[in-house]
Design brief:
5-stranded antiparallel sheet, 4 domains
Length: about 675
Amino acid sequence: MMGGLRAFAQSIAGKAVLVLLAVLLLGSGIVGSISLFTSSRVSTGINAGGERINELEIATEARNSFYQVAQSFETQLGVPLTTAQQFEDFGLLTSVKGSTEDRMVNQVAFQAQADQLGVTASEPDLAAYVQSIFTDPVTGQFSERRMSNSLAAQGLTERAYLRDVAAELSSTRLFSVADDLVFDNETRTPIAPVPDAVAMAEFNARWARYDIDYVAISPDTVDVPEPTIEQLQQILDETPVAYQRPEYRAFTGIFLTPADLIDSIEVTDEDLQATYDDYVARAEVSTQWAYKQLSLDDRELAQSIVDAVRGGQRFEDAATEAGVSAPNDVGLRPITYGREAINAAFTAATDTGMLDLVEDGGRFTLIEVYEIQKPEVQSFEDYRPTAREIIASPQASTILRARFDELDGLVGTMSLEDAAAQVDLPVVTGNMAQSGPDARVEGVPTNAKIMGEVFSATVGQTGFRNSFGEDGLFILRVDGIEETRPLTFDEAEARLQISFTETTRRDLLSALGEDVLARTTDAEAFTAYAAEAGLTIENREGMTLTDLLRFSVPTEAIKGAEAGEVVGGVTNTGYNVVLVREARAANAELDAEALAGIQAQFAFQYDDELQRAYREAVRATVRININDLIMDRAITSGLNAYLDLRSGGDGQVRLDGREYADQGANTSAGM
């Protein structure tokens, strides 16, 4: 589909759509973003449409991209990116270079297109943007002094600055105008018709329903021979990538949480008893009662309903017979809920049932308690560990932070071991693998951040104090590295035997199953085979392929099968022979919600493809010349600036030994 869209976007019709989108833009308010200001003193890395984008601009944009990528990695994967090698290993250097180039060229291309179409930014848009950039973060007020100082530092007049901002706002809006062509990204719903054939094909494949009978030929039915050395060696030779010893790193470190120090903190019996008493008191007032209530003016009528309920009648039925409204189900309420008289009545209840009438304000209230939730109170001895933790945890946190503060001042003057001994912190040494069972080392918490630090730190250099979990702190030094290497035959032999056994068993089961299928071609033959083999027939009704996955049947074989067919395949339960009794096509009415979800998914994808085609059409309107040497150098400078920021520096871009402060209010337009 993408190729067709690109061709359309580059055709006369596609350019007509581009102009139409620009016309739609003219009446709307715009707020965009401003690019970096160029400097003639820095080498040009990109020349697009006559606009020169210098090395400093590219490096600063790249630094911001590295920062955003690293944030995503740490937030979503728990992996901090702290070295250039990590970015290289994950393939991020190439992707950041590409995205940086695209964004900066798109800025120029869309600005040129906006100029050609006469798109301009309104005065309110300009005012709003400038105020947002130069608002004092402390007072929240626009600061003319901040603006003047910034423009002076860049050598810009106010008129030139506003001209640049206006052009940037216009081009940004032109860039983003096609974001919601057929799919609203905010409401997550289609807003225009899209080709439905692909969505319906997906729906029909995923939501067809099957009635099946099946039997499983047990894996124990086949005898797997013992492998020879030659057979195992052949597996190793054919799939060497599957038999690699992971990287190992020897390390020395300190990994502690406040909980690790609790036992070293003295807690008196008086403090424990006081904490337990508070716990008991809180438990007593946390009881909740669920009840129904009804208020009447007539005492005798109210009493007759109480008597009826106590005689076995439902509260609702007794009220109906008495000709009054149904009781109100109040639900669970705490000890402090309600009017004083009613509160006193239901909180005194220790058992469920109808209470005595409650006279309150000249009316008579009937209360039926139907549930009491009272927390179970632990004995003093059972609660002792919890009480100790409550008392000691704040002190443990304070001590841990204080010791690490002291440790920070020592690690630069002595070894980590000596510094740890001086502040009385335990040191853990070990050898950690990057994957597999040896990735867990006794004394080291299982934590992605710790592992990321171990496998990114420089050998022999004690790192900075770092945090993990809620309150944990750690610091470490990597002492040595054993690089990834192929396993020797002896090291891999156990895994090779498992692989041989699994592959051979699957092959033997498949051969046995295919022989059964050749003889079992209809429902009658299927039933006869199950009886002859002594196998229990299982059945499932009206299930989709996704539903059937839970029962370990060969869904790929079942997919598309017609009623009456017998199919089969190997799963973890053996070889499954399946009789498809009924195969029903997907039903758009029965599974309307699923169809709507698939249509929305494809609408989003279609919208995304149209956006890409639109943006590429605009980009094709300008000539682009890229100096790869300057581009690579700028990306490296941007990465170094990010790494400097990550290690506690100011993150300024440095080119050829020169340091450059951030130029202006730079925010990527996301192009």
